[in-house]
Amino acid sequence: MVDIYLLRHAHVDYAPPNQITAHNALTPLGHEMARRLAERCEAFELELLVASPFRRTQETAAAIRERRPDLPCLLMPEFAEVSIEDLDGYPGELPPEDLLAWDDEHFIYGNGRMWERVLAGWERLQEIVAQRGAERVALVSHGGPLNVIVRHVLGQDAAVMRIRDSWVKIDYAATSCVRYVNGSKGIVWLNDARHIEDLAPVRQGLW
What we know:
alpha/beta, 5 helices, Rossmann fold
């Protein structure tokens, strides 16, 4: 049996005039969420930590590694959020790096490219897990890639172009779990944020 824990990065302030790029840092609230997420991960007895290269995921993963400095950690660009790099080959005019400035056409193209690389990364992660003989792995990623993984596990690969219209709600610093056992896969839980539940008054309006 293999459990892969899907962890969304902690809180980031996306409100204008801030931009949404690869460089957004966690807010003070986000760092507290990351600290609590790291505490929550203690119960998972992780054997491997995987993270997107974006700053917000790296800062979230750093909180986990602070508690578990011995935990092996892999950087996997395949699990980054959609970004300007996903518009490589786009036939029209390129938008700014800031996602807030993108049109629907940019997201349709970019999400399609993101979908492909996330699924390729998911397949590579399965190979890494098998090679290491790991049974408890955590992936720190973003709302977009985690939606791809959840929908893939549920058999919805054909719906790539509708990812912005049909969205799985995943809160900042929330945990989900995908389990592989006896050749089958399924979602054990989705969007569990009980470790930051007392921050609800602060969280209001931030999701």
